[in-house]
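JOB MANIFEST
job_type = single_chain_structure
chain_count = 1
residues = 121
[input]
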Amino acid sequence: MLFHVAFGLPFAVFLLRNFFTGIPRDLIGLAAVAVPVAKPAIASLTIFQFLRVWNDMLVALVIADQDSAPITVALRAQLRQFGTNIDLLATGAFLSMIVPLAVFLVFQKYFVQGVLAGSTK
């Protein structure tokens, strides 16, 4: 977990700093107003970080043991073992996509607002 925090923190600081520089100073002084305004940026950051950690196969290959390996490592093992068994690999790939797709669909409104937040003045 510390590994993901260490690599995600610079991106989080960069994204939120750029978002908060676009907010007027009067609103930043009022936390009750600034936090609801920042919801799209925080939601976008949450989606980016979740997808980055979910798809991080390198850490799973290096740190995780075989008993607690994530689905991406299990799919890779199946590819080596059953290279021509495409129905098993396609089902596993679909199952590994369900959670990130659900997260994106739930937060889609905030994601679009957060990405477009600083695009117009």
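[summary]
The chain is about 80% helix and 0% strand.
The chain has one domain: 1-119.
exit_status = 0
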